[in-house]
Amino acid sequence: MRRHPHVLGFAACVLIAVGSFGAGATRYRGGVLRELGLDFLAFGHGRGLMDLLLTAGIVGLVAAWVMLWKARPSERQLRRTVWWWTGALACSAPILSRDVYSYLMQGAMLRDGFDPYSEGAAVNPGPFLWEVSHDWRNTTTPYGPLHLGLGKAVTTLVGDNVTAGLIAYRLISVAGFALIVWSVPRIAKAIGGDPALALWLGVANPVMLLHLIGGMHNEAVMVGLVSLGLLSCLRGRWCTPGIALIALAVSLKATAAIALPFVVWLMVQRHSSTALGRAGMLVVSGAWALVVNAAVIHVVTVASGTTWGWLAQITGNSKVINPLAGPTFAAELLTPLLQLFDDTFRYNTALSWTRSVFSVLMLVGLVAVWWLFRPRPGTAYEPRAVAGTTAAYAVAFAANAVTLPWYYASLISLTGTFRPPPWVVKGAAGASIVVALAFQGSGNHRLYDAWFLALAAIGAVIAVEWLFRDVPKTPWPARDESPRGPSGREAHRQDAPAESRPA
């Protein structure tokens, strides 16, 4: 593998880390720059300079990611590159979102005797509250007991020290990301996929790195647990340990449960020859998955000192508006059309309609995907289980009332593991490029900037066509360590990937 993509990506991550302290999701009070007497870099022309560094870093990371796959790296080279990039990003301040401050605040609320499922952050004034975005100071949390338990443990350990709390959450994010790095290529190997493609598309992806490491979102731990759970189910005859791991992820964030129905099908496929038959095993397996799930969540709930109140908050908030969510995108198309006939028609009316319709479509879509990806007689179900889980995540996030980039981590992490057709890989790569570039260091986005969208889309199309122009229109082939490109064609000896050492 040529060294240039590796080095370019590492340099880009260093730029992001440096720029983040002035142009990231910076502290409202205190912070590293203020302690060093450099707080002039957090506003005015100084912030503009830091924003330039951060933006250049994000663009450089996206370019390095594209070039990396063009170099045809091996699995080992990709894993090494991922960790160099992760190490550099781990030194940054929070970027692209202020959610980590809310995580600290919610943990402090539980520590101090407040209920984050019924009260907003404003009931517990202090250093953490100062850093919470104003939009969320009176909002309850939709996350499960494991999320609050982690927050309580962190804030009990660090007290009200915001900087120490951020470091603790960065370590938690890296630990969750490590589970993803370890599990994803092994999932690909277990189902006959290409572990190098799985690592490149699902782990080294800029969306994953920027939002799970840079943004420190709890998807890092959730996706890590789901990945480990799926791997356990694929490797072992009995799925109970894997179900328990996925249930642990559900206790962090409910969307992890989308993987469970496909684990049920996996159990049905493996044990349908018993006296119960296929239908009986479906009932028994489904009931067992529910029992294990409820038991694990109950244990976490008791251990964390929380309640089951999160179930009432699962739908979350409705404040976030961006076209990544299908209902929002549909409302933005529908409103101008209806205003041609009624100029008093309001966008919020259309949005309430589309959210209701898409809620039904999500439910129908999830059931349809579960049924379409059911086991087929005479064939191994493991690849279909992973492909079905990936498709179900796509349906859920496309139809959800609120969708943010890091939500797609569940989908992205699995997309390259099975043998996806080239159009899936191309679509995922192109969308990742646009989404990675769309968000600014502070958390604002450019998804309503027509010029940005046009340029980003054109750039993504050019990059994808350049990257995959030799790929045949067949399912993505698995690769070994021989000098064979991901398109399945034999590489010339002089083009074979060469080992390289990290910069």
UniProtKB/TrEMBL annotation:
Cell compartments where the protein resides: Membrane
Membrane-spanning residues: 49-69, 81-97, 167-184, 196-214, 245-268, 288-312, 353-373, 385-408, 420-439, 451-468
InterPro entries: MptA-like (IPR017822), MptA/B-like (IPR049829)
GO cellular component: membrane
Source taxon at top rank: Bacteria
Residue ranges, annotated region (Disordered): 473-503
Signal sequence segment: none
One Gene Ontology molecular-function label: glycosyltransferase activity
Keywords recorded for this protein, A-Z: Glycosyltransferase, Membrane, Transferase, Transmembrane, Transmembrane helix
UniProt topology in membrane: Multi-pass membrane protein
Parts forming coiled coils: none
Family: Belongs to the MptA/B family.
NCBIfam families, per database record: crt_membr, MptB
Protein name: Alpha-(1->6)-mannopyranosyltransferase A
